[in-house]
Amino acid sequence: MTKDGNLKFENQILENLDFKLGGLLSQVSCEENFTGKVGRSTVIRVLGLGAKRVSLLGLGKCPTVPSSYHVLGESVASAAKASQANNVAFALASSEGLTPASKLAIASAIAKGNFFFFF
Known about the structure:
The chain is mainly alpha-helical. It has helices spanning 12-20, 24-31, 66-82, 100-111; strands spanning 41-45, 53-57.
């Protein structure tokens, strides 16, 4: 969630998402003081983009432990259930430092985070 001197996200995925949201992501991250710390989350209501909400869920800096991603899966499932979502998509802002084996373990941990009710 770090930004450069022009208040642009240094992470290209976040910068692209912010562009698609018309700067709403950077605005909300400043207003809510959302820095991506573990356990922090915020929900942004959006209109006209094919999605009703965008949720930001903090995992901290480059978590590599699959249990961190199990918590992510639980958080996504809980947010989706609370908003009565029929479909969910998510993206990690970075997969830096993750090995192919850890990516597989992480995907499994996310899936075990109570996503079962979507299928």
